[in-house]
Amino acid sequence: MASLSAAFTERLEAAARALEPLLGALLGSAPLAGEIVRPPRLLAAMRHAVLDGGKRLRPFLTVETARLFGETGDGPLRAGAAIELLHCYSLVHDDLPAMDDDDLRRGRPTVHRAFDEATAILAGDALLTLAFDVLADPAVMADAAVRTELVLGLARAAGLGGMVGGQMLDLEAENRSTPFAEIEVRRLQAMKTGALIAFAVDAGGVVARAGGEERRCLAAYGRALGAAFQIADDILDREASTDVLGKRAAKDADRGKATLVDVLGIEAARAERDRLAEEAVAALAPFGPAADTLRAAARFAATRRK
């Protein structure tokens, strides 16, 4: 187990190292064909939101899932970069005063604090749009049908019935007179957090042209992993310090957010987190030892400390 943990950590860090220069290049100052100019202040805000921070778990999942099927080219990393750009947009907007009103993200001032609210809104908009630009580029995959499937999948995971819809439910939970029931909390979290994590896994399968049954196993893995990740996040919000998290601790309780910690209690939530991590691990059984890194990712999601 110790060696597997070390191998997982190295793979996670290696994926992050490979991703960073790609993200930097995608956020370069030179305009692309069809662009006129990239405003320096807007670009600086986007780079502040994206570069030099975060675990890069979502692109890691895309890269490692593709690797499971023998696809190790540049395509999975570019697909992962698109997902990371979209994820970072969501953090910029979530931190705004109209949403979660946070001053700290990844140990640094949030974008609206480092710049201003209007710039933060536009930076989020631009990151969202850039994500689809990257995913639609033939550099991801020459096959247009594969790129179309990726674009559609990301749109569904990130939009009305996915991440954005989940954020709306999250805001509704804060303002409702009666607490969300367990089934409502699970649905909210499956949308707000789980949908993008599940898509990050599926995207690796799409790029690598995995088969139907293989994709179904990956979908079960991604759903359980996303749910475990969110419960772990809720527990950390209650138990970890601001210094450790790199963002304000205890904010969910302060704002009355709907979490399984509130519904189940801290110990039962911890048990459910671990059960979901093992459910994710079990979904990978058909892939044998080749999926050990993805299994380690599920356990990492449950046991991480920040």
TrEMBL record:
The keyword Magnesium applies. GO terms for cellular component: cytoplasm. Its cofactor is Mg(2+). GO terms for molecular function: metal ion binding; prenyltransferase activity. Keywords: Isoprene biosynthesis, Magnesium, Metal-binding, Transferase. One of its GO terms (biological process) is terpenoid biosynthetic process. Belongs to the FPP/GGPP synthase family. This is Probable farnesyl diphosphate synthase. It comes from Chelatococcus daeguensis.
